[in-house]
Amino acid sequence: MEPDFDLIAKVCEIHSDTRGSYGSRRMSSQLRDDGYDVGRYRARSLMKKAGVSVKRRKKFKRTTDICCLSLTNFFALDD
C-alpha cells in the first residue's frame, strides 16, 4: 500500500469540497489545519498523483459594443 494513500484521499476530498478552487498553497494550508505536516511542494505532488488541478477563471469577454448601443439609441430618438 502506498504511504500517501490517506493524503491523496484527503486531497480529493478537499478538492471536491471546494469545487476545484484550491491550488497547492491553499491545499497545503488546509492539510496543515487538518493535522497533516505538508508543505506547498508536497501538496502539489499529491495533487498531481490524485489527478486534480485547480479550476481556472475564464477571461471576461464583453459581448456588447458600446458604440453600437449609442447609435441605436440615437436612431430610436428620431421616431
User: What's the gyration radius in Å?
Assistant: 23 Å
What structural class do helix, strand and pairing data support? mainly alpha
Count of alpha/pi helices: 4
Residues in helix, %: 55-70%
The percent range for strand residues is: under 5%
Oligomer designation: single chain
Low-confidence parts lasting 5 or more residues at pLDDT below 50?
Answer: none
**Average pLDDT value?**
81
End-to-end CA span: 78 Å
Main β-sheet description:
none
Shape estimate: elongated
Order of helices and strands: HHHH
3D architecture notes:
Helix 1 (5-17) packs across helix 3. The chain has a domain at 1-54. With 79 residues, it is mainly α. The protein starts with a helix and ends with a helix. The model has no long low-confidence stretch (mean pLDDT 81). The longest helix is centred in the N-terminal third of the chain and has 13 residues, at 5-17. It has four helices and no strands.
Topology record:
Blueprint: H1 5-17, H2 24-33, H3 40-50, H4 66-77
Helix pairs in contact: 1-3, 2-3
Brief overview:
This protein has 79 residues and is mainly alpha-helical. The protein contains four helices and no strands.
List keywords for this structure.
79 residues, mainly alpha
